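Here is one record:
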Amino acid sequence: MTQYVAAIDQGTTSTRCMIFNHSGESVGAHQLEHQQIYPQPGWVEHDPLEIWARTQEVIQGALQKAGATAADIAAIGITNQRETTLVWDKNTGQPYYNAIVWQDTRTDKICHELGQNGGQDRFRAQVGLPLTTYFSGPKIKWLLDNVDGLREAAEKGDAIFGNIDTWLIWNLTGGPHGGAHVTDVTNASRTMLMDLAGTTWNHDISTTMSIPPSMLPQIRPSSDPNFYGHTLPDGPFGGKIPVCGDVGDQQAATVGQACFSAGEAKNTYGTGCFMLLNTGPDIVASDSGLLTTVCYRFGNAPTVYALEGSIAITGALVQWLRDNLDLIKTSAEVETLARTVDDNGGVYFVPAFSGLFAPYWRSDARGAIVGLTRYVNKGHFARAALEATAYQTREVLDAMNADSGVKLKTLKVDGGMVYNDLLMQFQADVLGVPVIRPKVAETTALGAAYAAGLAVGFWKNTTEMRQNWGVDKTWQPSTDDTARTTHYARWKKAVTRTFDWVE
């Protein structure tokens, strides 16, 4: 008897499988990191075969920890790092090149050339996105233009494109032997190739980018009662299970936070930081540097849209302190180190390692540490790194308030960094609103599980999912407004110092 739903959460630095019961509680989980590849400054790649290998391992580990078999699993949902782009041979399953990660900036020249006619907002009216290195379309073009033999293979129909969700679903459902080549509306909305209004591929844009339409996967609902396909008995799950949920990671967290009503928002703290505001069936254009994107589509119900503020580097900055500077041995130690000082010592850290995302969209920016004096020590570095996350979130929230006309009264948060009490308290202080962590903070995987479970009737409707949501902890803002006035103004000044670094 099926009693669980499985979710595969394929993130920027790691892959995990989580198994949930009807109450939205995890009964088993396993997680493994994968290699980050940096061939040149600004380039970030992943090995797709390593990701698939890790996926198989975490599935087996989660099943073992849950004491479950394929017979216990009602459905499988996928959530993934969005925009990370790969192309592979549909006949062999071999990638033509490493996956180009969403943080990668190598397509800057392509974006500049495309913007010569119409500027950075050339396609925004159709796709809701500015021309930047963030999105998949320019990455596909780079691969076609730079990988020997790839364009010819694409024109023959042998080379197919997918973000990581498509790659995993294709492999889970048969790979070269009939695997489903599909994506969902949320992931498709991050390619710069999908019309928001019709949720169909825009062939005029793909032609402009010289991308053969035959490479593109079929666009399906995020929760699909017709299923994308089934797992194979000789696959990692060891049985025939419907794969029927697919939601990009930030939209999945929005679903996991039960933000099903227009005006509800969440912020996810991971490698980057991503705030989404549900705008319901309305496509809301942004005048403040936000993205207009798909939030989700469940079955045959109307598409739900969102405004999104995307920040490239937050948790990744803590990893940088750990791996590149060796200031800490584990990411969790950053809070202990930051607490050795009372404040940031006048230091502001702008982590524009991949340029600046929302609300600036400046690919010419690079990271900067300003305000250094002989007084500053490594504790100030740690504190400034944490504060950078809170300041960037404030910039996005201000833009969201301006675009939506709705002043948020609370902020729901999730992701790995929400267990950092110092950061969460400072976040409340710099925003001036309460910050709320739910009982299940890993809502990305839960959102993918909800999408899959809804498709098979494991959860009957969004009301059942909303009933699972509960408060774990709330941080109230300080009555001292220094963080949201003086310190925030200095942060804004520091940001301007990063502009125009790359010619």
Notes: The two ends are 61 Å apart (CA to CA). Residues 378-404 form the longest helix (27 residues). DSSP finds 16 helices and 23 strands in the chain.
